[in-house]
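Comment thread on ticket #2218

A.B. wrote:
> Attaching the input chain for the structure job we discussed in standup.
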Amino acid sequence: MNLNLLGYFRSGTSYRVRIALNYKGQSYSQDPVNLLEARHHDEAYRAHQPQGLVPTLQADGEDLIQSPAILEWIEESWPTPPLLPSDPRERAHVRAFAAVIGCDIHPIQNLRIMKHIKATYGLDQDGALEWARHWIHSGFEALEKLAHLHGKEGDFIFGDAPTMAEVYLVPQMYNARRFGVPLDHFPHLVRADAAATAHPAFEQAHPSNQPDAPHED
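C.D. wrote:
> Ran it. Output below, let me know if you need it in another format.
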């Protein structure tokens, strides 16, 4: 299958999709969409994604949008190695963990929200960063409790192998560090993040390893 990812190197949602494709052993090309230059608002890009959001995954020329839907499609298309447990209740716990990030943390601290609150409410950069830190920290408190309640023994949240939990967690931990969120009170999250980022699939997906990442001479 011919796969082409339209995304941005530092986009958490694009990062998730790269991780999943790498973990499944699927090769793909990339067409970067520069968010800082507002290329996602171009008519040419909106022809693929009407919201003007990244990523878009083109599968044999067909546009797939919204990272949760893309990730489920990837899991269904290449079930091995799995990113979801076989037990329905355990799958629900993994999906709930991922949803805390995908629904409640990431959307309110991404670039378009940060730009809006700065422009509309007169926040400076420090104020916008404090907004992001507040919501990330609040969400991480819930994730740490979920990991304690439903997690399994092992290096990862739900056992000895990464799941969709780490696919969502690692990009959000990357953002947390960028925004200066203290992580001392989240040992489960830190441990799983360390284990995941050491995995080749996650390492290859890191923003610094993408074709549109700025490189110093």
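A.B. wrote:
> Thanks. Noting for the ticket: Residues 125-150 form the longest helix (26 residues).
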